[in-house]
Design brief:
The chain is built from 13 helices and 15 strands. It has about 350 residues and is an alpha/beta fold. The longest helix is centred in the N-terminal third of the chain and has 39 residues. The chain is globular and about 65 Å long. It starts with a helix and ends in a 28-residue tail after the last helix.
């Protein structure tokens, strides 16, 4: 009996192992097939190249960053970075459709595919990276939240806002930041929310709120549009870190990589001293790093699914980071924003490109 049971057990064990082997093989083949399918699935990068145009989500009411100029065209710092993406992907910075988006509908526009890339003064946060489903490119503007008040209000510090009403825009990080900082300072206040920045500013100018808050760059931008810009001040306090960066839909690494390295190209170009005016002179440079950046040598562009001269096209048509900054926000503009933390690392700032190699 024992021998019979032992024999039966041995037979069953062999069958189990055989079945397990078949299952493993099938699973392996299935995974391989699935992997092949995944790797061959079309990236948004390929779709954009086939379409021939880039759909970019931008702001159209934030002077200096994204707004409609006197010529009726989209212009600004963020708009130029959207153009840089078009130049890098399609070889033509004009092959772009701008979609104006509010703070509340910008993320849905990315998730639904209404836009390919969001370049709209958007802060990179944990929640937006993990829960909202965005993938961020390198930071293009390091900012911080501030508060604007009337100059004659005698409000100089956060403590002076005790009992005041402060306007904030919904769908932004400002409301939570404000709550955190006011709680830490022990200041009681009332937050009044509005659907968009125009509504906040209208209420502020009408005097129905005592102050309003957003990124300091936004405060500087909007101050220039007030009836009497000099009648208002921005408090010294910085309430938060606001790293603003382009974003794409999560899950498409090929497309995210393309946008990332296009941004890096503008930063690296400034470090090398390559501008839209002199980039052609650098095509004969013997510096191997410059040769790789401009696509004279190597195939870095091809590795990213772009043309090897993608960085050249970005620089030639849109400019390096410094050119983009100065054109829209620099000393010759109404904003006169100092580079500060948005300077190159070699100049004491935070901008630093990953090596092109």
């Amino acid at each position: 009996m024992k021998k019979s049971l032992s024999l039966i057990f041995s037979i069953l064990l062999v069958l189990v192992l055989a079945l397990a082997g078949c299952s493993s093989k099938t699973g392996s083949e299935g995974d391989s097939s699935s992997g092949a399918k995944s790797s061959s699935s079309k990236s948004l990068l390929d779709t954009i190249k086939d379409r021939g145009t880039l759909k970019a989500g931008v702001n159209d009411a934030l002077p200096g960053f994204g707004y409609i100029g006197s010529d009726g065209k989209n212009t600004g710092f963020d708009v130029d970075f959207a153009k840089a993406v078009a130049a890098g992907v399609l070889g033509d910075a004009t092959k772009i459709e701008f979609r104006p988006l509010s703070a509340t509908d910008r993320f849905t526009a990315v998730q639904s595919g209404e836009v390919d890339v969001l370049v709209r003064n958007t802060t990179w946060t944990t929640n937006r990276d993990a829960e909202v489903g965005l993938s961020f490119a390198p930071v293009t503007f390091y900012d911080g939240q501030g508060i604007m008040v009337p100059k004659d209000s005698n409000i100089k510090t956060l403590e002076d806002l005790e009992g005041k009403t402060i306007g904030v825009e919904t769908g932004t990080t400002t409301e939570l930041n404000l709550a955190d900082q006011m709680k830490a300072a022990g200041v009681n206040y009332t937050a009044q929310t509005f659907d968009n920045a125009d509504a906040v500013i209208a209420a502020y100018e009408q005097g129905s709120i005592d102050a309003w808050t957003t990124d300091k760059s936004g405060l500087v931008s909007r101050q220039s549009t007030l009836q009497d810009p000099d009648a208002h001040i921005i408090l010294d306090e910085t309430l938060s870190k606001e790293p603003l960066a382009p974003a794409v839909k999560d899950g498409d690494e090929k497309w995210a990589d393309a946008v990332t390295w296009i941004v890096f190209a503008t930063i690296q170009a400034e470090e090398f001293g390559i501008t839209s005016q002199n980039v052609d002179d650098f095509l004969t440079s013997e510096n191997p790093e410059i040769q790789r950046l401009l696509g004279v040598e190597g195939n870095l562009g091809e590795q990213l699914g772009l043309s090897n001269d993608f960085a050249y096209q970005v620089i030639k048509q849109v400019g390096n980071y410094g050119e983009i900054y100065d054109r829209n926000l620099g000393p010759d503009t109404v904003f006169k924003l100092e580079r500060a933390q948005n300077a190159l690392y070699s100049d004491g700032g935070l901008l630093y490109s990953i090596p092109f190699r």
